[in-house]
Amino acid sequence: MQIAGTRPLISPLVSGLTLALVVAGAGLSSEARAEAQPPQRQSLMALLEPAPPKEDPVPTLVLERTERQLQATGDPIWNLKVEIPGEPLRRFDAVSGRANRQNADRDRMGSRAPLPVGRYSVGVVEPLNDGAYPELGPVWISIEPTFVTGRRVLGIHLDPSAGLRNANSGTLGCIGLVNRADMLELAQLIERSGTDRLEVRD
Fold first, then answer.
1. Could you give the maximum distance between any two Cα atoms of the chain, in Å?
2. Residue 115: closest CA among 169, 154, 83, 142
């Protein structure tokens, strides 16, 4: 009587264990099949010369030469662009170097040539006392080359003499904005966006 009474309890238990083993076996076989699949095929060039990772866009100043010039002095007008991700592109007229020194050695100290091509770090906006530096305007923004060059003490500032025949039109190599309002707007954009990169492309 006791043996007959225990059979209904054992039978469901055995069935449950059997089902669990079958399910576990199916899971193991799926994992084994997944591991047995060959890895994704790659070309030899992709292995030898992998593509560099793409950089996320960051606020950047870009300086490029244009075909325009200041009529009175012949200074070439450079285009200073402010590229801030998610915002409209801004453009400001600027000068760099003296009009008659545009083809001088751009890496030599004292050449009065435009800035050398390359990447620069952009410093903080520094207000200047009124009248203290007449040829620099209201603010100074230092820039530092990230490459080897002989040029030193470079920055972005207003060129109050731009287009004037007073022998001071243009810069000694810095970026000089032509309009005061543009210089103040640029300073605000740099401070707000944290722009710390400048690229001179021409």
1. 123
2. 154
Query: If you count DSSP H runs as helices and E runs as strands, how many of each does the chain have, helices first?
Result: 3, 8
State the Cα–Cα distance between residues 68 and 142, nearest whole angstrom.
26
Beta bridge partners of 157: 176
Q: What tokens does 41 get? A: 């095929």
Looking at residue 174, the DSSP 8-state letter turns out to be S
pTM: 0.74
Task: Assess contact for 74 and 164: CB atoms under 8 A.
Answer: no
Evaluate whether 84 touches 189 at the Cβ level (below 8 Å): yes
Calpha distance 118→109 (Å, rounded) = 16
Q: For residue 8, count other CB atoms closer than 10 A to its CB.
A: 8
In tens, the pLDDT along 157-199 reads 999 999 999 999 999 999 999 999 999 999 999 999 999 999 9
Name residue 79's beta-bridge partners: 64, 93
| Per-residue three-class SS string for 46-81 | HHHCCCCCCCCCCCEEEEEEEEEECCCCCCEEEEEE
3-state secondary structure of 176: strand
Our CA angle for 164, 168, 170, nearest 5°, is 85
Q: What are phi and psi of 154, to 5 degrees?
A: -110, 150
